[in-house]
Amino acid sequence: MLFAVQRQLAGSHAQTKPRHGAVMAYLDEQGNRATELAELSGQHKQVIGTLVDELEALGLVTREPDPADRRAKLVVPTANGLAQMKAGDEAMAGVEERLAAAIGQDDYRAFKRTLQRLAELSMPGDATSD
Questions:
Q1: Total domain count for the chain?
Q2: What's the pTM?
Q3: How far apart are CA 61 and CA 118, in angstroms?
């Protein structure tokens, strides 16, 4: 599913790479700390830091002081970043609609539940992950 979304977005966002999804997929409009993005995505903090550097260079995010703790920084999407996030959400919704239409809503919902469970089981730190 994600490859279908990536192909759909590739033309309009040629500079972004699939790896940038580790940040953009979890980014709130108001911003997140890099440590939170690392936890949500299952990536190491150093990897997230590199991705944020790349996204900042592309003009998709900025680093701003966290109002709750001025020592910390929030990764905040720019207007271009918000537009890309919206385009990604719309592309994913389109893929989901096509898949649900192809196999039926009930089967698609069951598939999503199973996929979510597998993702939860494979998160780092989970006793069942290898």
A1: 1
A2: 0.76
A3: 30
CA 1-15-124 angle, to 5 degrees, is 50
Pairwise CA distance, residues 90 & 81, whole Å: 14
User: What SS3 class is residue 127?
Assistant: coil
pLDDT in tens, the chain (130 residues): 555 655 655 555 557 888 888 899 999 999 999 999 999 988 999 999 999 999 999 999 999 999 999 899 999 999 999 998 998 889 889 989 999 999 999 999 999 999 999 988 886 655 444 4
Q: 19-49 burial, b if ≥16 CB within 10 A, otherwise e?
A: ebbbbbebbeeebbbbebbbbbbebeeebbb
Q: Which domain holds residue 66?
A: 2-121
Is 57 inside a domain boundary? yes
CATH number at residue 74: 1.10.10.10
In a domain, 116, yes or no: yes
Is residue 100, in this structure, part of any structural domain at all? Answer: yes
What token pair was written down for 42?
């299952």
